[in-house]
Design goal:
heterodimer; A: 164 residues; alpha+beta; 5-stranded mixed beta sheet; B: 280 residues; Uridine Diphospho-n-acetylenolpyruvylglucosamine Reductase, domain 3; Enolase-like, domain 1; 3 domains; 11 helices; 31% helix; binds flavin-adenine dinucleotide; binds FE2/S2 (inorganic) cluster
Chain lengths: 164, 280
């Protein structure tokens, strides 16, 4: 029988307590216990980035994190980021630029890109590609994704420092 | 690919973790960032009975400046090191090498102790430890001991750490004049290196002194290229002597002569990086 553990964490602003099997990873916990299906299951061994969520403010592989390790943590999924409106501009740019086709990689891509945008640093296209290098997309060829992220970054930087 | 069943322990002190490790021995694995251990479990390459999670031991995480060294707690995450002003000032080689380690999300969880404990031959941090002449602290129920990086890495994923020991800290001796250089050959950003070099040394009147270059991705373990470094001090920067130090064999990444050529490129570029001249 599976060993279990009681955990309490905050998910998208809501406190949740559950008894989880200790070998359950965070992605399965979010999807199966909480119905948060934006956290995707891709490779399940850390390579593709489809399972990226935020744990205590940092982009994290859900498939490489045990649910028990998230005990006491603040977890955010794309459902949470969408609701808060934090990345409406980035999401609009993705739609504008057609930066998704099947959409499987998109939640992870957005969460990783959001971390980059938060740093509020000018970045070249090559820098953006490097930052997103842990998130695979099998459809778009990345060009449109980089376009969308670049557009959003440029707009945010301009907003921050209105040009003289 | 679900993880096999295991028992989960969450100690709150090093002493408690050491006692648990002593009790379970080889049936247990320590869980640090999990960025290698969890894929290993997912692929069922290991099925430990017990996981001992080091994540709640507060004093294992942190960066501190001591009299003659910079001290890094084993559970300090890559991201903490990357953003640390202390590391940038006193161990800039680490700051320079970190962007090459995996990807953002993995650096947000992976730890310096996990990387040095794992001792992947193509990993960046073990090579940096070797180049910097770091000391590694190992702790068990019997007490603790310090071991030099040069005596610590023994072979393919093999180190001087006993099954009952926890890697608890790393000390990097301070050397204010030291310059650093780094280069790695990889197929894509974030991949493990095909060949890489981490260099430290002093430069006076354009001449390098006290050069230490740790090569990674070349042999079964990170290796100090002593012969090539001596040659570089006399002005031979192209790694012509590297064959005396590393012996890459033909493998999935390429034939031996190609891998040696890649090692030479990494050596030359790391040393020119240290000299501050452009990387031809
Ligand atoms: C897609 C991907 C790409 C990657 N690319 C790179 C790369 O380019 N370069 C690179 O260096 N790494 C890479 N990694 C690996 C990553 O750096 C790991 O984080 C690191 O190797 C292990 O650190 P960890 O803290 O995650 O350790 P864990 O995975 O938790 O542990 C690794 C091993 O070390 C043992 N261990 C951990 N901590 C201790 C300790 N304090 N004392 C004793 N034993 C301990 C564990 O029991 C386990 O056997 C990659 C990983 C992934 C998933
Ligand atoms: S599903 Fe987690 S990285 Fe692929
Ligand atoms: S849109 Fe299909 S994987 Fe990226």
């Amino acid at each position: 029988m599976d060993d279990v553990f009681d955990i309490t964490l905050t998910v998208n602003g809501r406190r949740v307590s559950r008894r989880v099997p200790v070998r359950q990873h965070l992605t399965d916990f979010l999807r199966e216990e909480l119905g948060l299906t934006s956290c995707h299951v891709g490779c399940e061994h850390g390579v593709c980035g489809a399972c990226t969520v935020r744990v205590d403010g940092a982009a994290t592989r859900g498939c490489l994190t045990l649910a028990v390790q998230a005990d006491g943590a603040v977890v955010e999924t794309l459902e949470g980021l969408s609701e808060s409106g934090e990345i409406v501009d980035l999401q609009a740019a993705f739609v504008d630029r057609n930066a998704l086709q099947c959409g499987y990689c998109t939640p992870g891509m957005l969460i990783t890109a959001a971390e980059m945008l938060d740093a509020k640093q000018p970045m070249s296209r090559a820098d953006i590609r490097t930052f997103l290098s842990g998130n695979y997309c099998r459809c778009t060829g990345y060009q449109a994704i980089v376009d969308a992220v670049e557009t959003t970054l440029t707009a945010r930087l301009a907003e921050q420092e209105p040009s003289a | 690919m679900k993880f096999p069943a295991f028992k989960y322990l969450r100690p709150s002190s090093v002493a408690e973790a050491a006692a648990q490790l002593a009790e379970h021995g080889d049936d247990a694995r320590l869980l640090a960032g999990g960025q290698t251990l969890m894929p290993v479990l997912a692929m069922r390459l290991a099925e430990p009975e017990v996981l001992i999670d080091l994540g709640r031991i507060e004093n294992l995480r942190g960066i501190a400046l001591e009299d003659d060294a910079l001290r890094l707690g084993a559970m300090t995450r890559y991201v903490d090191l990357e953003r640390s002003a202390l590391v940038a000032e006193h161990a800039p080689l680490i700051t320079r090498a970190l962007p090459y380690v995996a990807h953002v999300a993995i650096r947000n969880r992976g730890t310096i102790g996990g990387s040095v404990a794992l001792a992947d031959p193509a990993a960046e941090m073990p090579a940096c430890m070797l180049a910097l002449g770091a000391e590694i602290e190992l702790t068990s129920t019997e007490g603790n001991r310090w071991i030099a990086a040069e005596d610590y890495f023994l072979g393919l994923y093999e180190t001087a750490r006993e099954d009952t020991e926890i890697l608890t800290a790393i000390r990097i001796p301070l050397a204010p004049e030291r310059r650093v250089g780094f280069y790695e050959v990889a197929r894509r950003h974030g991949d493990y290196a095909l060949a890489g070099a981490a260099a430290v040394g002093d430069v006076e009147d354009g001449r390098i002194q006290g050069l230490r270059v740790a090569m990674f991705g070349c042999d079964d373990l990170p290796v100090l290229a002593k012969t090539a470094a001596k040659a570089a001090e006399t002005g031979v920067l192209d790694g012509a002597w590297l064959e005396a130090d590393v012996s890459p064999t033909s493998n999935i990444n390429g034939e031996a002569h190609i891998r040696l050529a890649q090692a030479r490129v990494a050596f030359r570029r790391a040393v020119t990086d240290l000299l501050g001249v452009s990387n031809g």
